[in-house]
């Protein structure tokens, strides 16, 4: 993620209107915009594998899965992020055009340059979403998936998964072998 070079602060509405005319995606945080950089082939494959499986799993129900180009607004005023995969089961998102605001599941595929931010500050922002039940971080360099799940006491619990494990996403009642997200993924040697 790279900050906008002109350093101009924007209102949320200015950002939403401005971004529609840009050639690349920008995230919006506290009045600043940040250009989204491209990911690696493993990163893209992992996101596509999970998004495809979720779409099939959710077919015919009230939930919808989205990937990379679906913007999530933590509130009407931002911040606005582009998670790798997002699922909303909320009726209020059925007619969404510019951004999803009521997701139950958000997934980020980690890269070396974004891992600390995805685990820290971005997760802090996402936790403000009242409908969010699970936040998943998937490693793009080795078989590893961390699922943070909100328990009935309002505490986020970590559920780590490694090679050979079956992943359980309770927010969408989806069980799958971790190998599903790593199908056709080659790791750097």
- Mean pLDDT, all residues: 93
Distance between the termini: 25 Å
Strand content: 25-35%
CATH 4th-level superfamily of the largest domain: tt1808, chain A
CATH class category label of the largest domain: Alpha Beta
SSE topology string = EHEEHEEEEEHHEEEEE
Q: Which shape, going by the Cα principal axes? A: globular
Tell me what the CATH architecture of the largest domain is. Answer: Alpha-Beta Complex
Helical content class:
10-25%
Q: How are the strands ordered across the major sheet?
A: 4-7-8-9-10-11
Number of helices: 4
Number of domains: 2
The largest sheet is: 6 strands, mixed
CATH level 3 topology of the largest domain: tt1808, chain A
Point out poorly predicted stretches.
1-5
Describe this protein's structure.
- This protein has a six-stranded mixed β-sheet.
- The N terminus is likely disordered.
- The radius of gyration is 16 Å and the shape is globular.
- The longest helix has 18 residues.
- With 189 residues, it is α+β, with helices and mostly antiparallel strands.
- The chain folds into two domains: 37 residues, no CATH class; 142 residues, tt1808, chain A (Alpha-Beta Complex).
Spell out the key features of this protein:
alpha+beta; tt1808, chain A; 2 domains; 6-stranded mixed beta sheet; 189 residues; 30% strand
Task: Please describe the topology of this protein.
Elements lengths: L1 E2 L8 H8 L6 E4 L2 E4 L5 H18 L5 E4 L4 E2 L6 E2 L3 E4 L16 E6 L4 H5 L1 H6 L7 E6 L4 E7 L5 E7 L3 E4 L4 E4 L12
Parallel strand pairs: 8-9
Antiparallel strand pairs: 1-3, 2-3, 4-7, 5-6, 7-8, 9-10, 10-11, 12-13
């Amino acid at each position: 993620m790279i900050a906008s070079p002109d350093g101009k602060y924007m209102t949320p509405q200015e950002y939403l209107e401005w971004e529609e005319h840009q050639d690349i995606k920008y995230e919006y945080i506290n009045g600043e915009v940040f250009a989204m950089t491209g990911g690696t082939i493993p990163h893209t494959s992992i996101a596509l594998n999970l998004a495809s499986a979720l779409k099939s799993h959710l077919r015919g129900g009230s939930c919808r899965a989205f990937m990379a180009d679906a913007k999530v607004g933590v509130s009407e005023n931002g911040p606005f992020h582009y998670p790798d995969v997002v699922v909303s089961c909320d009726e209020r998102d059925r007619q969404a055009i510019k951004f999803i605001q009521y997701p139950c599941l958000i997934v980020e595929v980690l890269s070396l340059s974004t891992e600390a931010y995805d685990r820290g500050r971005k997760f802090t922002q996402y936790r403000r979403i009242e409908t969010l039940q699970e936040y998943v971080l998937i490693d793009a360099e080795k078989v590893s998936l961390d699922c943070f799940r909100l328990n009935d006491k309002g505490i986020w619990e970590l559920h780590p998964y490694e090679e050979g494990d079956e992943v359980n996403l309770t927010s969408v009642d989806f069980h799958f072998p971790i190998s599903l997200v790593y199908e056709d993924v080659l790791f750097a040697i």
